[in-house]
């Protein structure tokens, strides 16, 4: 058992912080006592510290599972800047002799970052098994409970991976999870009795607004008005890449702001440039798809506008949570035209094939390619010995759940009372109504009243190091 002073010394000496933020100390104490823990702390709360600090008090390696290379790279860079060199990223880029050598020498690393897909590789798992894993961390643990064509089924294997590694003390981290999702995550990890540290998902400095609009055309006009009124930096989310690009161009022409599009269809070198300019306040507005955001550590984003609604409130909260990490007044506004939810319904829909088709694929009588884009998703389950009937049942169930979540998103939009209260209730919390500047409830002229602080272009010596950014860039092409 470590005493309080010992822990505070590490906080001071390795991280340069004097105090813990809410939820940090409680989580760290639980981990040091060997308790499996689920920590739900809002974006920007300091979740990385929860596993970085215990690393200096435990013997053995910290294994961190993360969904995106860019997120891993960001953590690796941060650890390097803190002077920690014993860090490695096990990704698909590591190949050949280099990979063999790293796998042989895993003992020399204190922090190993990897993806769920890598852990599905027997060679990697065997190498990891030879090491003492002091702590296994699953960052962005809500991924375990996600759905849709983007779902990464390898997340479902983590329960077994964990067992194979000897069930090390495990930390699950996320910023948003309803009580139902919490239960789902714990169940899928086989960690029903985990200790839970849950802090409010509320971000009191983000004003919540919804604007209902009759037609798409009017929506564009409204967007233009808002963007001209608010001082950036801001992010505008679109459901499609094409629209994100078109609107970026349009806004760039219509205003004197610098606007760029950011999504998976933009070339990596271009994305690198855009991210860099945005970090340095040379770009004021980014028109993005949901691909932009995770791993963006810019704390003075003033507003997040949704041109299209996201597929559920978890995603909404994640996306608006990128605003106002500096604690200053910020804004989340959602533009809604009747029927907008159809777009999301299309994006998240998975066509469930007839059970006979799956059976034929399973027996090798039919190629999985008949399933189109979703072939690999179904193949994954078949390969991992799910029966066709189990797969169909699972998909049908999820379909119902996805629709329910979308309806709850729409209900938020149509809520005539306090939006914050609705949101917090959805996440199983109570709202005491103490936020003075809360949401557009009874505040029809919020757009005039809301004054956002201005950000200045950074001076030369405050700019984000291009070396770090370039390194991140070189790693973002892989998924
Ligand atoms: P999260 O993963 O919860 O979004 P991060 O781990 O990225 O948050 O941390 C956000 C920021 O907060 C980082 O810049 C980090 O250095 C800082 N931070 C974390 N813990 C503390 C603390 N106890 N005191 C001051 N700053 C902290
Ligand atoms: Mg994080």
Automatic annotation (TrEMBL):
One annotated GO molecular function: DNA binding
GO biological process terms on file: DNA recombination; DNA repair
Keyword terms of this UniProt record: ATP-binding, DNA-binding, Helicase, Hydrolase, Nucleotide-binding
Taxonomic superkingdom: Bacteria
GO cellular-component term (any): bacterial nucleoid
Annotated Helicase ATP-binding domain residues: 28-195
One Pfam family cited in the UniProt record for this chain: RecQ_Zn_bind
Ranges where the Helicase C-terminal domain occurs: 222-377
PANTHER family the record matches: ATP-DEPENDENT DNA HELICASE RECS-RELATED, DNA HELICASE RECQ FAMILY MEMBER
Stated name of the protein: ATP-dependent DNA helicase RecQ
Species of provenance: Limosilactobacillus reuteri MM4-1A
Gene responsible for this protein: recQ
């Amino acid at each position: 058992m470590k005493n309080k002073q010992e822990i505070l010394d590490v906080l001071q000496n390795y991280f340069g912080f004097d105090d813990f933020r809410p939820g940090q100390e409680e989580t760290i104490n639980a981990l040091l006592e060997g308790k499996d823990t689920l920590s739900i702390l809002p974006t920007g709360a300091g979740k990385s510290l929860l596993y970085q600090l215990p690393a200096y008090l435990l013997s053995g390696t910290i294994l961190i599972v993360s969904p995106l290379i860019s997120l891993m790279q960001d953590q690796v860079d941060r650890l390097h800047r803190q002077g920690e060199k014993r860090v490695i990223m096990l990704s698909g880029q590591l190949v050949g002799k280099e990979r063999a050598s790293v796998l042989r020498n895993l003992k020399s690393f204190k922090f190993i970052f990897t993806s769920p897909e890598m852990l599905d590789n027997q060679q990697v798992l065997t190498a990891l098994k030879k090491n003492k894993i002091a702590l296994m961390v699953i960052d962005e643990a809500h991924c375990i409970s996600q759905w849709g064509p983007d779902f990464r089924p390898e997340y479902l294997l983590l329960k077994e991976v964990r067992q194979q590694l000897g069930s090390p003390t495990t930390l699950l981290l996320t910023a948003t999870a309803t009580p139902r999702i919490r239960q789902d995550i714990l169940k899928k990890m086989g960690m029903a009795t985990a200790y839970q540290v849950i802090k409010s998902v509320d971000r009191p400095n983000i004003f919540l607004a919804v604007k209902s609009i009759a037609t798409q055309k009017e929506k564009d006009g409204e967007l233009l008005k808002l963007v001209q009124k608010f001082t950036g930096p801001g992010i505008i989310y679109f459901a499609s890449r094409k629209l994100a690009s078109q609107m970026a161009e349009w806004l760039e022409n219509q205003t004197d702001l610098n606007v760029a599009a950011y999504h998976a269809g933009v070339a990596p070198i271009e994305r690198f440039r855009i991210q860099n300019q945005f970090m340095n306040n040379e770009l004021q507005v980014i028109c993005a798809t949901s691909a932009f955001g995770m791993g963006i550590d810019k704390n003075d984003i003033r507003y997040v506008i949704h041109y299209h609604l996201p597929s559920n409130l978890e995603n909404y909260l994640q996306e608006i949570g990128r605003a106002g990490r500096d604690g200053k007044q910020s804004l989340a506004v959602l533009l809604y035209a009747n029927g907008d939810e159809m777009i999301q319904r299309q994006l998240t829909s998975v066509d469930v094939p007839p059970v006979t088709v799956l059976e034929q694929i399973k027996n090798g009588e039919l190629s999985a390619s008949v399933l189109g884009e979703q072939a690999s998703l179904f193949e994954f389950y078949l390969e991992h010995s799910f029966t066709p009937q189990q797969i169909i049942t699972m998909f049908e169930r999820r379909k119902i759940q996805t629709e329910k979540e979308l309806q709850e998103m729409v209900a938020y939009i149509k809520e005539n009372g306090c939006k914050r209260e609705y949101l917090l209730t959805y996440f199983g919390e109570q709202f005491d109504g103490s936020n003075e500047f809360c949401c557009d409830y009874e505040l029809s002229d919020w757009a005039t009243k809301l004054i956002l602080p201005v950000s200045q272009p950074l001076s030369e010596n405050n700019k984000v190091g291009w070396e770090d950014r370039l390194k991140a860039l070189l790693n973002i092409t892989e998924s």
